Amino acid sequence: MDDLPLILVAPLMAAMIWTDLRHMRIPNLLVGAVALVGLGCALAGLMPDLGMRLMAGVAVFAVGLALFALRVMGGGDVKMLAVLVPLVPPVALPSFALLLSMTMLAGVLMLSGLRRVAGGPESSWAGLRAQGRYPLGLSIAAAAMILPIGI
C-alpha cells in the first residue's frame, strides 16, 4: 500500500520517458499531474508520514535548484524530482536514490550506444541528437517504476 502513489503515477512516468527522449523536455503538465496524484493520495490518507515526505521533497528541490543554477540539471528534472520524491515512502528513499543512480548509469550507456546507431544531427529525437546532454527524466521515471516492483 505504501507504493500505491508510485504505481498510480507509472503511466505519467512512461509519458515522461517519451517526452524527455523525444524533445529533451519534461512538460509542466506532467509535473502538475504528478503533484495532483500526490495531493489526492495525501487527502486519501495514503501517506501517513506526509510531513517527512514533504521535507524530503523540499530538500530535493533545494539541492536541485543549486544544480540547476550550475547548469547540471534541467528545470523540468528538478521540478519532477521535487514532486515525485514525496510519493516515495521515507524508508524507501535510500533504495530510490540507489535505483536512480543505477538507471542513470544504464541510461548513459544505452543512450551512448543508441546515439552511435540512430543518433546524430539528422535524428528527429532530441535525446539522440543532444551530445553532452542526458535526458534525466528517463532515469527518474525508470527508478520510480522499478521501486514498487522491488527489483
Task: Tell me about this structure.
The mean pLDDT is 95. The chain has 151 residues and is an all-alpha fold. Helix 2 runs antiparallel to helix 8, helix 3 packs parallel to helix 5 and helix 4 runs antiparallel to helix 5. The protein is built from 8 helices and no strands.
Number of separate strands: 0
Rg, please? 15 Å
Secondary-structure element series? HHHHHHHH
- Largest sheet features: none
Instruction: Give the N-to-C terminal Cα separation.
Output: 17 Å
Number of H/I helices: 8
Low-confidence stretches: none
User: What structural class do you assign from the helix and strand content?
Assistant: mainly alpha
Overall morphology:
elongated
Average pLDDT confidence is: 95
Helix content: 55-70%
Protein name: Prepilin peptidase CpaA
Pfam family, one: Peptidase_A24
InterPro entries: Prepilin_IV_endopep_pep
EC number: 3.4.23.43
How are the SSEs placed, and which strands pair?
Elements: H1 4-8, H2 10-23, H3 28-43, H4 50-69, H5 75-84, H6 93-118, H7 126-129, H8 137-146
Helix pairs in contact: 2-8, 3-5, 4-5, 6-8
